[in-house]
Amino acid sequence: MSKQSKLFGEDEEIKKVEKMDLETAEGIAGTVLSLVDAWCKQIEIVGSIRRKKAEIHDIDFVVQTYEDEHGEHWKKLKDSMITMAGVKVILNGDKIFRMLMSLEDKWVQVDFYRTEPETYGIYKLVRTGSADNNIYLAKLAIKKGLRLRYSKGVIDSTGKIIAGETEEGVFKVLGLPFIRPELREVIGGKPIWKKI
Questions:
Q1: Would the CA dihedral through 44, 48, 54, 55 be positive or negative?
Q2: Cα radius of gyration (the chain)
Q3: CA distances from 158 to 31, 145, 161 (A)
Q4: How far apart are CA 171 and CA 164, in angstroms?
Q5: What CA–CA distance (Å, rounded) separates 98 from 84?
Q6: Would you say 185 and 192 are in contact if contact means Cβ atoms under 8 Å apart?
Q7: pLDDT digits (tens), the chain, 196 positions
Q8: 3-class state of residue 20 by DSSP
Q9: CA 77/CA 112 separation, integer angstroms
């Protein structure tokens, strides 16, 4: 029995989409974005879609909702998706909302990662990936006496957060120009953006 069948009940085996093409994923992401945009101060499609990969496995968003005392805009964003037909919630948290959306006879995973204004850039960078590129940047930060923390930003040797609000700021403190998302891949231990 799969984890998902345990989650949704044995009688309801979930068939998750193993991969979809970029155009299909962009279409779904655009539809989802239009449904939740009203609650967001900033929202970005990230992950493999932002990197323009040919095959996409899930859809990821980084979100900064409008600020309010009780997180009502985050709740409204989640509620707008929960109330849709063909949606199954996997995780409904304060910082992460994960769901499955029906696509023909299969399900597509959609993840929302909630940020604060000061962490929007670092979340966008890390959630865009690739994982190997993130590891490379974290190691580069260590060589420079810094730490790259996905939930905080770039931290100096005194513990002060020196970048995180924007991707450009993170790249700058690492001594790098802005790297286009589609170039954020590492092959044979070397980032492809270093070859350009």
A1: negative
A2: 18
A3: 44, 10, 9
A4: 10
A5: 14
A6: yes
A7: 444 444 444 445 667 888 999 999 999 999 999 999 999 999 999 999 999 999 999 999 999 999 877 789 999 999 999 988 889 999 999 999 999 998 888 899 999 999 999 999 999 999 999 999 999 999 999 999 999 998 899 999 999 999 999 999 999 999 999 999 999 999 998 999 987 6
A8: strand
A9: 10
pTM of the model: 0.89
Structure tokens at 12: 């309801």
Strands (E) in 80-143, as ranges, are 87-92, 96-103, 106-114
Distance of alpha carbon 72 from the chain centroid? 21
Look up tokens 């964003």; give the residue. 77
Question: What token pair was written down for 89?
Answer: 């919630």
| Domains of the chain (ranges, CATH numbers) | 3-114 (3.30.460.10), 117-195 (3.30.210.10)
Asked if 42 and 36 count as a contact pair (C-beta separation under 8 A), the reply is no
Please provide residue 186's backbone torsions phi and psi, each rounded to the nearest 5 degrees: -125, 125
